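INTERNAL AUDIT FORM
Audit reference: QA-55
Scope: verify that the stored structure record matches its stored sequence.
Auditor: D.O.
Record contents follow.
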Amino acid sequence: MPQNYTGVYSLVHQENLDSYLKALDINLPLRKIVCLLSPDKEIVQHGNHMVIKTLTSLRNYIMEFDIGVQFEEDLAAVDGRKCQTTISWDGDRLICSQRGEKRDRGWTHWLEGNTLHLELRVEGVVAKQEFRRKK
């Protein structure tokens, strides 16, 4: 069984987020606001069932899923789209594939000690975020 991601994490570093949001067709004023936010991630993992909450002062996004089971993800809070999402394990990494209007869309989460890494991908653009475990 891969490692347990359960915990609360705070953003400490991010790279290339504006370019990622631009590739998602997010307008400039909203991109600027989002890039200023400092989200927390709250993850609860029970075996292959997970809940990942991204919490900000602007808006929260909650994703609940079972590993390996495709579901329709409503990304209205992010970019107004819906997509077919599947999340699977690759070793200790969580790999998300999102099929919809945008090609090559998805993300990867992995842990190194108390650091939670997130790599966001869409149409060849990659953004990276690092979070530190708070509890």
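Auditor finding: record pair retrieved intact. The CA atoms of residues 21 and 38 lie 15 Å apart.
Action required: none
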